[in-house]
Amino acid sequence: MTKPLDPIALEIGWNGLKSIADECFITIMRSAFSTNIKERHDHSTAIADAKGRLIAQAEMALPIHLASMAGLMRHLLDQYGDDIWPGDIFIANDPHVAGGTHLPDINLAMPIFDGDRLLGFVANIVHHADVGGAYPGSMTGGVDEIYKEGLRIPIIRLYRRGQLQDDVMRLLLLNMRLPEERKGDLNAQIAGVRLGEARLQDMLHRQDAGFIEQLFAEIVERTNLRMRTAIASLPDGTYRAEDFMDDDGAGTFDIKIALEIRKSGENIVFDFTGTDPQVPGNFNLTFNAMQSAVCYSLKALLDPEVDNNQGIFDAIEIIAPVGSFVNCLAPASVAMRANTCQRVVDVVMRALAETVPDQVTGAANGANTSAVFAGIDPATGKPYVYLETLGGGMGARATKDGKDGVQVNITNTSNLPIEAIETEYPLRVEAYALVEDTGGAGEFRGGMGLRRAIRPIGHSCELSSVGERFRHQPWGVFGGLPGRAGQFRLENDNGEVTALPPKASGVRLDPDQTAVIETPGAGGYGKPQNRAPTRVDEDRASGKFSSKFIEANYKNRTQPDHT
To answer: What is the dihedral of CA 330, 332, 333, 336, to 10 degrees?
Structure first.
C-alpha cells in the first residue's frame, strides 16, 4: 500500500495546481479578442488526471463548466485511447457526442507527458460570441434543433504532435461569423493550455511522476471524504420540490422540473423522475449540464469551500430519465441550457429549504437573460456581434438582503461596463441601472434586477434576446415575497412602446429605437412584517423602492420621525 503524502507536501502540491489553473485563466482573459472573455470572463480552466478525472479548477472558473470538462475528458479517452501524443491539442464543443453543454462553449485539452507516460491534461473552455447557426450569437430563442445552433465539433485534433492542422482551423473559421475574433479567442485558448503544460512540466522537474499521480488521487479522495461528511450532516429523509420554466420559445409552456432527494447516511440521490420530456426549443439539458447544477447546489448549501473536482461527482447519485428535459437526446437543441441550470439550482434550494434554512436563499433571478446585437459597423464596414448575458437579483438570505444586479449561482461572470460596449461596438448605452421594486419583500429582501437600454448609432441592427422568469416570478422562502419578473421592450423616439416576447429572434432595431432589457429580481426571505424598521427606512432612502411598494409591503415598519 502506498504511503499517504505528507500533509504539508499535499497542501503545497494542491496549491501549486490551483495556481497553474489560475494563471492559465488569467492568460486567456488577457489575450482574448472578444469582450465576452476579456471583460466578462466567460471562460474556465482546469487540470485532469490520466483517467480524465477533474482535479483542479481556476478560482474564477464557472461552475457550469465543471461537468463539461469532465465530459470532454471521458469522451476523449473513450475515442482516442492510446492514440494520444505529446504536443496534441484536442478541440470539441458538441453536447451530444463530445461531453459539452452547448455549442458556443469550445473546449481545448492538451495532454501532459513524462517521457512516454501520460500523467494528465490541461483543459479550458471559452464561450465564443458566435459559432455560426441561424442567428448571430448562436444563442437565440425558438431554435428547434441543434443543427440550427451552430457548428458542431466532435473531439478532433487541432494540433497533432505540435503541428497545427491548418485545414481544421480553416474549416472552423469558415463556419463562424467574425472569423478574426474567433481565431483570436482560439489562440488565447491555445496559449492557455500550452502555459498549463509548461507549468506542469516545471512541477515534474521538482517532483517525480509518482508524486504527481499520488497527488491527483489524494486530492480527489480528500474532496470526496469532505463532501460525504457534509452530506452525512443532513437529516435522513426524502425531500421533494418542483418548479417550471416559462417556455421554450417554440410553443411549449410551463415546463416542469420535478425533483425527489433521498438521503441516507453518507449517500444522497437526486431523482428527476417526473420531469417533463425534452422540448423542441433550446432549453434542454444534457446530463453533464444538469450534473453541474446539482453538484454546485449541494456544494453551496453544505460546504461552499470544498474543492471543485471529481470527488464531488463521486459523492452524488443522479437519476434523470433519458429523453427528459434534464437529460435530452440528440438532436435536441440546448443553447440556452444555462437558464434551465439556474432553475435546477432553485429546485434543489426549494427541496432542502426546511432542512438547511440558514443556507438557502429565496429564488434568484433564475435566468441567464441574454441580448445579442448584430449588424455592420458603419465606421468600418465590418460585421459585429455583441453578446451579453445580464445579471439580475440574488435571493435573500437568512441574515442578509440579496445582492443586486449580479450573475448568480452557476454563471460566475461579470456585467459589461458601458465603456467597453461603446468602445467596441457602434452602440450607445442610454441606461444602465437597477429596476425599481424588483426585489421581493421580506425580513430580508431579494436582490434587484438590471435595466439596460441600448440603441444602434448610424445604422440598423438585429436584436435577439432570451429571458426567463418573465412568466413565473422568483419565489420567496419562509414567508418572503416573490421578486418581479423581467421584460423586454422597444421604445421609439416618438414615445411608442412595443413589448417584445421573452424569446425574440431577429428583431430589427433602427437608430430611432432603443431596446430596453429588464432582468428579473429575486425572492425575499422571511415575512415582510419582520423587517427591521431601520432597514425599511434604508430601502426608502435608497431610491430602489417606491413609496407605494414600501407602503404595500411594510406598513408601520418605518421608524418614527424624532426630528
So the answer is: -110
Residue finishing a domain among 163, 191, 225:
225
Task: Supply the angle between the helices 287-302 and 209-232 in degrees, to the nearest 10.
Answer: 70
Among 196, 225, 254, the domain boundary falls at 225
**What residues make up the domain containing 472?**
361-563
Tell me what the pLDDT averaged over the chain comes to: 93
Q: Is the pLDDT of residue 558 over 70?
A: no
What's the grid cell of residue 507? 428583431
**Predicted confidence (pLDDT) at residue 561 exceeds the cutoff of 80:** no
Judgement on whether residues 71 and 216 belong to the same structural domain of the protein: yes
Neighbours of 547 (CB within 10 A): 8
Query: Both ends of the chain: CA-CA distance in Å?
Result: 76
* pLDDT 10s digits, 107-164: 999 999 999 999 999 999 999 989 999 888 888 877 889 999 999 999 999 999 999 9
243, 468 in Cβ contact below 8 A? no
Q: How many domains does the chain have?
A: 2
Q: State the DSSP H helix or E strand holding residue 227, giving kind and residue range, or none if neither.
A: helix 209-232
Backbone angles phi, psi at 294, to 5 degrees: -65, -45
Residue 263 lies in a domain: no
Q: Is the pLDDT of residue 323 over 60?
A: yes
Neighbours of 265 (CB within 10 A): 10
Strand order in the sheet with 54-57: 54-57, 43-49, 117-127, 105-114, 89-92, 156-160, 163-164
